[in-house]
Amino acid sequence: MVVLAYGYSSEGAADPGRITINLSIAPGSSTPLVLGKPLGGRGPSVEIQGPDGIVMAAHSMPVTLATETLGGELQAGPEPLNFEIVIPAAAMCPGHSLRDAVTEGTALGEKAHTLTIGVRDQAVARHRAAHGIDDVGDLLVASWPPSPEQADGAGTFPDDEAPGPAEAAR
Questions:
Q1: 77 and which of 32, 50, 89, 98 could share a cystine (Cβ 3.0–4.6 Å)?
Q2: Residue 149 to residues 51, 52, 122: CA-CA distances in angstroms?
Q3: CB 45 within 8 A of CB 155
Q4: How many other β-carbons are positioned within 10 Å of the β-carbon of residue 37?
Q5: Residue of 92, 97, 96, 114 whose CA lies nearest to 105
Q6: Is the peptide bond preceding residue 38 cis, with omega within 30 degrees of 0?
Q7: How far is Cα 88 from Cα 92, in angstroms, rounded to an integer?
């Protein structure tokens, strides 16, 4: 899973705005990765970390698919599964704004905020195991800004223990 684009927008002074995140999931093999709806059983979790800690946390977020799927499953492969998440102002921690979460840390020498998105689905673990991947965890993680180090999913994603209703049914 990768972040394709990420930014802040507002319709004017009276609109608190929103953060829009565009992401893509590819299976990494010729075998499709079939995920349940909502994406990840509960929907993605999104966090933004600032230099002093979490400034935004939103869990079980709805997504908008770039291409509508047929049936109750989402498929990555052979084409990537592209989707968008919109974060409302209400998701911000007190004292932080959407605009600042996206724009702070962009000047030379400033520490950037880090965006982390997690999608948890048992299909990910099955797909990894079927392809002999040592890490058979069920968490997909994408982060921004890109880093040469792999994202570790160390956020406070609530899906860690109990499966959501869609996950439990599989």
A1: 32
A2: 18, 21, 24
A3: yes
A4: 15
A5: 114
A6: yes
A7: 8
pLDDT of 78 above 70:
yes
Q: In one letter, which amino acid is 102?
A: V
Phi, then psi, of 60 in degrees rounded to 5: 60, 45
Q: Give pTM, 2 decimals.
A: 0.80
Q: What is the pLDDT of residue 70?
A: 66
Using one digit for the tens of pLDDT, what is the confidence trace for 95-143? 888 888 887 666 666 677 889 999 998 889 888 888 888 776 889 999 9
φ/ψ of residue 58, rounded to 5: -140, 130
Residue 106 CB partners (closer than 8 Å, separation 6+): 112
Nearest-angstrom CA–CA distance, 91 and 85: 13
How far, in Å, CA of 81 to CA of 51, rounded?
32
